[in-house]
Amino acid sequence: EVLEAMRLLEENDLLEHFHMIHFHIGSQISDISPLKKALREAGNLYAELRKMGAKNLNSVNIGGGLAVEYTQHKHHQDKNYTLEEFSADVVFLLREIVKNKQEIEPDIFIESGRYISANHAVLVAPVLELFSHEYNEKSLKIKENNNPPLIDEMLDLLANINEKNAIEYLHDSFDHTESLFTLFDLGYIDLIDRSNTEVLAHLIVKKAVQLLYVKDHNDILRIQEQVQERYLLNCSFFQSLPDYWGLRQNFPVMPLNKLDEKPTRSASLWDITCDSDGEIAFDSTKPLFLHDIDIDEEEYFLAFFLVG
């Protein structure tokens, strides 16, 4: 096709207007290797076309593809190269090829729209609610007598949990909670007992997380999905983050408050729509941690970066 294009240009006296070759190998290129291969091909093509008579050919447009690093986790990077490596490879490979073929170096053009525009916008959304916000000690309706034995045991766990036994007590609370839910389904305990079970389970989780993060306890990492908190945001992912629900494109997220405090709650994010895509689920490979807050007493905002 290239040879046929050259023939047509010559036959129609248009070869002098041939100034640029252009290619585009894809968007958001995460691996540098395909780019290097394309550059070698483009460099040789540029030099050969000049030798064939396209003396006004002086430019190579490499298109887009320069990837934006969306992940906020150093251990799980989306791309395997830096901007400096990308630039050096483009210039070096094209220059060396045309130098070996004794042709002039081309002007290099690039169209990295995503890389240029991603930083221009930030989505800021307030947190409206933590789903476990109502699970506090005031919500407990402990009976004066006839509490199920497992409820009494969970009360004991909550009262005596400490840094040394936090993981053990957390496991016990998971087991007791499952057993009590089963008893409710079978009709052996009433709705008040089930409500107390939920409240106690959340209180124990909250206390355990606080204790285990005092010394960066590694055990908490193994159960972070079980102790995650759900944060309700005043926004629509469908409207404001279309690349998330459409392409499952992740964006860096961080709180704008409490920046001097370490976040301890593994978090999933929910918007205020009723759409099934209105959730950014917790991902243990790329976890999001937020602060445990009282939304009635303080504002809490989250920012989604690189959404341009």
From TrEMBL:
- The entry's keywords: Pyridoxal phosphate
Q: Which GO terms describe its biological process?
A: L-arginine catabolic process; putrescine biosynthetic process from arginine; spermidine biosynthetic process
One GO MF term, please? arginine decarboxylase activity
Pfam families associated with the record: Arg_decarb_HB, Orn_Arg_deC_N
What are the residue boundaries of the Orn/DAP/Arg decarboxylase 2 N-terminal domain, all occurrences included? 5-118
Q: Does the keyword Methyltransferase apply?
A: no
Report the domain of life of the source organism.
Bacteria
Domain called Arginine decarboxylase helical bundle: residue spans? 145-218
Answer yes or no on keyword Cytoplasm: no
Cofactor or coenzyme needed: pyridoxal 5'-phosphate
Q: What is this protein called?
A: Arginine decarboxylase
